[in-house]
Design goal:
With about 170 residues, the protein is of the alpha+beta class. About 25% of the residues lie in helices and about 25% in strands.
């Protein structure tokens, strides 16, 4: 499944263009190792959002959460904590008045959108569970990274994610 999602993301990103909101001065670029270190705190979040889309919506240098609801809405949870110690509050129940008309209104896996190489475009980091560390008593995560060579705004980004989810589901069913 992770290979399928990676292939779809690579194909899509090689054919399109992604530009997030202009980065804030505090925003930096993130490596796979950085995202792997942050993954557990964002996936196991205080608002119990399963498989969130994790992106810095408000350009404050901290990742926020987007949740796709069963009613077709997207909820935006703002991070009021820090980058390393996030704490989320519901900021908008109908983010950008965006509505999802899909038979699968949920994310299949959590994804981070962050700049991985300082080129100021959002790259995709797909997060998969990779076992449990019995020494630290924590879930381990594997990060798959897809470099984006194009530009999208947040609305296009959300649409792309929904299309990828639908394509992945169709491929799994077939």
């Amino acid at each position: 499944m992770k290979t399928l999602i990676s292939i779809i993301a690579v194909l899509f990103l090689s054919c399109s263009t992604l530009r997030a909101n202009p980065p804030s001065e505090t925003k930096k670029y993130f490596s796979k190792k950085d995202i792997q270190g942050l993954a557990a705190k964002y996936i196991n979040n205080n608002v119990k959002v399963n498989n969130p889309l994790i992106i810095d919506i408000d350009n404050d240098g901290k990742f926020d959460l987007l949740k796709f609801t069963s009613k077709g809405n997207i909820k935006y949870y703002r991070n009021t904590g820090s980058l390393e110690e996030p704490f989320f509050i519901l900021e908008d129940k109908h983010y950008s008045n965006y509505e999802v008309n899909s038979f699968l209104p949920v994310m299949l896996i959590p994804m981070f959108f962050a700049d991985s190489d300082g080129d100021k475009d959002m790259d995709v980091f797909c997060i998969m569970k990779d076992g449990y560390d019995s020494k630290t008593f924590q879930q381990k995560y594997e990060v798959t990274h897809v470099e984006n060579t194009m530009f999208f705004d947040n609305t296009v980004l959300i649409t792309i994610i929904l299309v990828l989810v639908i394509i992945a589901l169709v491929l799994v069913i077939v």
